[in-house]
Write a structure and sequence with these properties.
globular; about 30% strand; Rossmann fold
Length: about 240
């Protein structure tokens, strides 16, 4: 991976002529995303993200921390102990420049012998699962990282609305996917193209079933305005 998302964040943080990120998925056309969206303050965040940060407590793991906006809110506004991880070296470099105290380049699946009270995965946190077939592996890992009484706070969206209806009112979904929330993302930045990568969106019922299968309780905390939701998983 060329780490173009990370490069865009780092360019923004260091005033190195940042440009918009161009995104395209297997079911949607090209769209532009302004990098400053990843640098928003608590007051600029959607209600779902604000609610997750309000519910976070104890020792916290911020998975896929990006530019560190959620971590900074928890660290500076709530004075909580936050560990921030991302697989992007440039994202972590950005976090450190912004003042995130404990940020490191790491894959969630590689964490060993650590426990947390709250694990947050925001901005479609389940996206890192990639495909449905990886859900059990990720949920099992997340569960293993929780202290007794701990919680996992994550958000996602039911993207069924993005598919066309057939004559009977049903949805026309391509047959090459195991699940309609499995997308392939393409990203471009400053004329460079990233390697295509898998990204998962989970409807709430599917998340709930996967959670129960892995010995986790699943609660619907908040629903957003765009088919999105915040869920809490606990043992």
């Amino acid at each position: 991976m060329k780490d173009l998302f990370g490069k865009a964040m780092f360019d923004f943080q260091t005033n190195n002529s940042p440009e918009n990120i161009i995104t395209e998925t297997s079911i949607s056309e090209e769209d532009e995303m302004s990098v400053d969206y990843l640098f928003r303050s608590y007051n600029e965040m959607p209600k779902i993200e604000q609610k997750a940060l309000q519910l976070a407590s104890g020792k916290i793991l911020d998975v896929g921390c990006g530019a560190g906006s959620h971590s900074l809110s928890l660290q500076n506004d709530r004075h909580l102990d936050v560990t921030s991880i991302d697989i992007s070296e440039k994202a972590i470099a950005t976090c450190k420049l912004r003042g995130v105290k404990n940020a490191r380049v790491q894959n969630l699946l590689d964490i060993e012998e650590e426990k947390f009270d709250t694990i947050v995965l925001l901005m479609n946190g389940v996206g890192i699962f990639g495909k449905m077939e990886n859900c059990n592996n990720y949920l099992s890992k997340l569960k293993s990282l929780l202290h007794p009484g701990g919680q996992i706070l994550l958000d996602s969206s039911d993207i069924i609305y993005m598919f066309d209806e057939d004559e009977d009112g049903g949805k026309w979904i391509p047959s090459n996917n195991d699940y309609y929330g499995e997308l392939v993302f393409n990203i471009s930045y400053k004329g460079e193209k990233e390697e295509p990568f898998s990204w998962l969106y989970l409807d709430y019922n599917t998340l709930q079933n996967a959670a129960v299968a892995n010995g986790l309780k699943c609660e619907l905390i908040l629903e957003g305005e765009h088919y999105d939701y915040l869920a809490r998983l606990s043992i």
